[in-house]
């Protein structure tokens, strides 16, 4: 295991850990790619899956937004289905569609075909983390994985879904198969994150992109125990751990429960539908918050962007007054492909000036 880096001056790590940062830290989900011309130039020569298993490409794409925007954290370039592909699931990321699964998981027999993730299967990712730590200097590197529920939804549906009907039908109607699937995916998620922590990432984020499709009662029954096990397994490393989902206003308290109480700093990502001061009253005391500018605002012109950024920063301060341990400025979801990179750079400069 690489020796953990000491980054005492990092505003991101300070805010995520409940310490007072020297400035409001800012980074963006999907900052590595999508809107950047230098990313598109690389991707024109490589598929998404090729890029995700090439250490030099992972390193270069992760560094691009650091060079351009001067954000306060890098996030590892990867995809939430990488550990599934690495462990033998036949899938591909189809342009303009997303992950497509060749043989969807629908029965207990299908679940039994899932294999554990072995570290050597994601060796290029570990190699990239080592290269990045040498390149990033005092900028922290965030590792990440998809949460078990979101991975399950892709596997059961066979790809992206609007209503998640097959997923919910298994969850509610075949609970033994559901929990077996979630147990297997929790093991894969833990293995992928442990590899990243051992390779030297400075923080982790778990993306439960589709959890917002669930009621709070169903989330607590069918998802929370498995997500909790992910965070509990990673806590001994002591790195800040963030839990994020979209449309999860009613789930924020439960999601913070999953990440909190294990001895490591916990943070919850908040989307734009919930004001940060309100989120502060919903999460477990001592949890930091990340968010929560609507990504579409970045398309509305600088005067609109500037007002909205100032509002989020002020809301972050009010959230801390309401009990949040800290605030990291981010979007409420990922950067949209049509976003002008120069606007993103200006947002970083503005946040830092506030």
Give me a quick take on this structure:
It is built from 16 helices and nine strands. It is of the alpha/beta class. The longest helix is centred in the middle third of the chain and has 25 residues, at 175-199.
User: In which order are the strands of the major sheet placed?
Assistant: 1-4-5-6-7-8-9
Q: What's the story with the biggest beta sheet?
A: 7 strands, parallel
What's the multimeric state? single chain
Mean pLDDT across all residues, rounded?
95
Structural class estimated from helices and strands: alpha/beta
Structure description:
This protein has 354 residues and is of the alpha/beta class. The protein contains 16 helices and 9 strands. It has a 7-stranded parallel β-sheet. Strands 2-3 form a two-stranded antiparallel ribbon. A hairpin with a 3-residue loop joins strand 2 and strand 3. It is globular, with a radius of gyration of 19 Å. It starts with 10 loop residues before the first helix and ends with a helix. The relative contact order is 0.14. The mean pLDDT is 95.
């Amino acid at each position: 295991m690489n020796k953990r880096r000491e980054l005492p001056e990092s505003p991101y790590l300070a805010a995520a850990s409940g310490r007072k940062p020297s400035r409001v830290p800012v980074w963006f989900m999907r900052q590595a790619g999508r809107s950047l011309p230098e990313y598109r130039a690389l991707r024109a020569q490589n598929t998404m899956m090729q890029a995700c298993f090439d250490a030099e490409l992972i390193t270069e794409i992760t560094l691009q937004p650091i060079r351009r925007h001067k954000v306060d954290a890098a996030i590892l370039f990867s995809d939430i289905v990488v550990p599934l592909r690495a462990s033998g699931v036949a899938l591909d990321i189809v342009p303009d569609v997303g992950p497509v699964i060749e043989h969807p998981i629908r029965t207990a027999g299908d679940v039994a075909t899932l294999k554990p993730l072995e570290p050597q299967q994601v060796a290029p990712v570990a190699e990239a983390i080592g290269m990045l730590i040498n390149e990033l200097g005092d900028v922290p590197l965030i590792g990440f994985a998809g949460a078990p529920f979101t991975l399950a939804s892709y596997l059961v549906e066979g790809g992206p879904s609007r209503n998640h009907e097959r997923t919910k039908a298994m969850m509610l109607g075949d609970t033994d198969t559901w929990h077996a699937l979630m147990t297997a995916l929790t093991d894969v998620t833990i293995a992928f994150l442990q590899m990243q922590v051992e390779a030297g990432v400075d923080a982790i984020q778990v993306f439960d992109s589709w959890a917002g499709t669930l009621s709070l009662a169903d989330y607590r029954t069918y998802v929370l125990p498995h997500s909790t096990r992910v965070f509990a397994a990673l806590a001994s490393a002591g790195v800040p751990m963030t839990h994020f989902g979209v449309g999860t206003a009613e789930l924020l308290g439960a999601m913070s429960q999953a990440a909190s109480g294990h001895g490591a700093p916990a943070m919850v990502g908040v989307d734009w539908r919930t004001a940060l001061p309100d989120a502060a009253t919903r999460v477990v005391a001592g949890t930091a918050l990340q968010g929560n500018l609507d990504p579409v605002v970045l398309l509305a012109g600088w005067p609109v962007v500037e007002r909205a950024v100032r509002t989020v920063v002020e809301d972050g301060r009010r959230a801390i007054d309401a009990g949040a341990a800290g605030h990291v400025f981010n979007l409420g979801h990922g950067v949209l492909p049509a976003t002008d990179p120069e606007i993103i750079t200006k947002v970083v400069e503005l946040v830092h000036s506030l």
